[in-house]
Amino acid sequence: MSIRLRVNPITCEAHGLCAELLPERIELDDWGYPIIDGAPVAPELVLHARRAAAACPTLALLIEELPRRR
Amino acid sequence: MSIDGRMLPRLLLGVSPAGTIGLGEHLGLHGELPDPGRGRGGAALIESVERAGLRGRGGAGFPTALKLRAAAAAGGARRRAIVVANGAEGEPASLKDRALTAGAPHLVLDGALVAAEAIGARELIVCLPRSAQASATAMTQAIGERRRDPRRSVATRLELVPDTYLAGQESALVNHLGGGPAIPTLTPPFPTERGIGRRPTLVSNVETLAHLALIARHGSGWFRELGTRAQPGSTLVTLGGDVACPGVYEIAPGSRLEDLLDAAGGALSPIRAFLVGGYSGTWLSSETDVVLSAEQLAPLGATLGAGVIFALAADACPVAESTRIVRWLADESAGQCGPCLHGLEAMATAMEQVAAGEAPPGTGERLSRWQALVAGRGACGHPDGTVRFLRSALGVFAAEFADHAAHGRCADCAQPSSLPFPGGGRRATEKPVLR
């Protein structure tokens, strides 16, 4: 199953854990908020991405399951 | 006044500053709303709106047929859809929704009833800004006149909403009407899927609904007799600034800005630039030959947006004026999303420093970087709109910004704002001037 990341900018409070747990895909802006693109997460990073989402204190990091390609 | 005397006005037919068009007069001007018929009435109407190519007139220009279809698909007997007529008009330089609701409230109500029919809604909420007293009076009266209509099947009520920039944003309005604050929520889900009380909610600008009322009467072919391919129909604009007769005009997209200015009695002084769209719109140098259509404005990075056209006099300071707008936009941020809250504040502060000639080295680079950094990172389009405005200001007034950065304030900086701001008194005209 392929996934992509999305942040809920309303609930995000710039704790920054996501960028520590998934530096390969997430960097922080000048104010500490994550910059996330909507590209699919590479298979080897999926577990780390899920861990980052689970670690977010405000649950603002969202995992979207992408429909499997046929 | 119309620019194309043959076919205009449509929406403003019979509208005058003298008063509101009552139900009897409205029916005399436009005729009865045709009976939608049974069963296929809704689907047929949506098809007609699709052929007409009607796009929302609140600023975003979303195809109305898509919205209607989404709300119709999400609604049902157990989860009745709701129609919201959006006249919140938080755009400070825009008066067209106030003018329309104060002058022709029945046209807006007709359109809302047509939309309700199309999506199976039995509830209509008309939203107006708290400050729009003339509109509220006219709308209350119009809703009252229809209470006597035996065919009335849509429960209608008026809601006055806060006078903030974002109150009219679709999800913010739904949030407010559902008992929350008038600030945006994360979408999707869109209001057409899950809106007020989790019911499918069609939020449509009042001008869009008025067009719908006329499409239902005259058809899509008639609608397309005016306007351009990408922007068919007529459209309301608010012409402001240094012109002889500022006010609300109905134009056909594709007409030239120069013709609109002529209709408004011309400019009162040399014009430096035009702000097109609204406060999250685009400055266009007065040296540009501007045609008011989606097709012609797109290459200039502009859209008609909410229909605002503001003529900035050459003796006003464009740096001071633009900086005030960015500051206002920053202050109007709902403050929910970090990049918007911090980014807009940072950009407004940097511009104030540039305008005062007190910007630290690297400010220009930081401004460019922040623009790229905040765009697309809010729950709503507010940061994107602010960036669009800022980018056009820094581009069109590049020489003036450079001059201020180097030498500080200019002689014109101290002039009072030419642009209106809520509470600043310039929009105090409760009754918009109609042309």
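qc> The mean pLDDT of chain A is 94.
qc> done
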